[in-house]
Amino acid sequence: MQVVIALIVTTDGFPIAYEVMPGNTSDKTTLDTFLEKIEKQYGRANRTWVMDRGIPTEKTLKKMRTAQFPIDYLVGTPRERLNKLEKSFLAKPWEQARELVKVKLLECDQELYILARSDGRVDKERGMRRRRLKKLWKRLGELQLQKLSRDDLLLKLGAAKKEAGRAYNLINIKLPEKNDVVTQETFTFRLDRELLRKARRREGSYLLRSNLRDKDPSQLWNRYIQLTEIEQVFKELKGDLAIRPIHHQLDNRIEAHIFVAFVAYCLQVTLKQRLRALAPGLTPRAVFEKFASIQMVDVHLPTTDGRHITLSRYTQPEKDQLILLQQMCMDLPAQPPPKISLNTVQTH
Fold this sequence. Notes:
Blueprint: E1 3-9, E2 15-22, H1 31-42, E3 48-51, H2 58-66, E4 72-77, H3 79-90, E5 95-98, E6 101-108, E7 111-118, H4 119-145, H5 150-164, E8 171-174, E9 188-191, H6 193-202, E10 205-210, H7 217-224, H8 227-238, H9 251-278, H10 284-291, E11 296-302, E12 307-314, H11 319-327, E13 339-342
Parallel strand pairs: 3-4
Antiparallel strand pairs: 1-2, 4-10, 5-6, 6-7, 7-10, 8-9, 11-12, 12-13
Helix pairs in contact: 4-5
């Protein structure tokens, strides 16, 4: 069973609402419904919708801009639009949004486009491109030496293209004609240095768009990177909270399974915020692992007068656990009182 889970969280990661939809639901079809649902449930507010580029359509963004009460948004933008606006951005100066991050601003068609460039992201993307390009170049050299038919070569090139990603476009490949034999003369390849220079210029850059034209660029960038918060939510739901795999078949059981995971996340994000304030550097998983050795046990004691005493006791925390409890301003509850019961002997 496959489902799509739509989740809305605050800037601190606290979940507001979620929705379970069929597995074949397109992301682009969900936004209108959520806009209406959140406004109906919580009323109009000064909220900004931050979304990845795959969520909104042009029609929905126009509707958000031109509504009677405009809805603020900040979304990622496909690279194709950067190609169209690249010349317009050239004359614009860079502004420092934060350390290692600078932006350029461009107003166009009632929207503000933000071209952001991160030095850290430059290093990451450049390293990935180099590794893929090096691996692809080596693979092409191997194929050039193999005795292959043209059809076999095309199949192997398709696999290499899938693995190389965008790096594949940086190499110009000459293929043998339909009836030609694959040799080092009929199958050649070379690096497109002009495309490589363009790729290097764009590494670490991404384009955002918003109808918030009067906002400080650093604020807009900080809002957009909050998408990493919701990405972390799904990582925790899939990992620590085991929302998948879903082994149920009935709809109500699937809904119940996801609801339990959602409530568990509410508790986990509450713990995360508490740790952020009181014990920075610790994660909920680290706390769970640290406290896992504290267990509840039942001690059963028979008495001489035929009764039975049950003592429920949690094991005493160790020194490092006590320090962590103190840091988090938490006290363990008092040990439960004993339970006394009569021994009952069944006779037949």
